[in-house]
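Homework help board

Subject: predicted structure for assignment chain

Our instructor gave us this sequence and asked us to write out the predicted structure in C-alpha cell form, then describe one feature. I got the C-alpha cells but I'm not sure how to describe them. Can anyone check?
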Amino acid sequence: MHYVVNYTLIGERTKERTAELMALFAVRGSNDSTVAHWVYADGGGGFLIADGSEMDLLYRDALAYSPWMELSATPIINVEDAVPQIVEWVSS
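My C-alpha cell output:
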C-alpha cells in the first residue's frame, strides 16, 4: 500500500528555523520508502508518496520533523485498482 503524506510548515518562518530544518534534511534525506517528493510553490509545505510497507520509517521521520511541520498520511491505490471496485459498487 502507498500513502500520500502531506506536510505543512508550522511555527515561525525565520531563517534560523529554516536552516535547522535544512540541516536535518541534509542528514536524514529521503528515506527508502519515498517514491516521489514535491514541495508546494507557495512555500507552505509539500507532499510525498510513500511505500507503506516501511511504516516505521515514516513514523521515525514524522517524529524527527514534528518541531517544524504537521504531517498527515492518507492511504492510496492506483486508478487501475480503484475503477473495477467503483464499477462493481455502482452496479450492485
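Reply (TA_rk): Your C-alpha cells look well-formed. For the description, you could write something like this. The CA atoms of residues 8 and 70 lie 5 Å apart. That's the kind of observation they're looking for.
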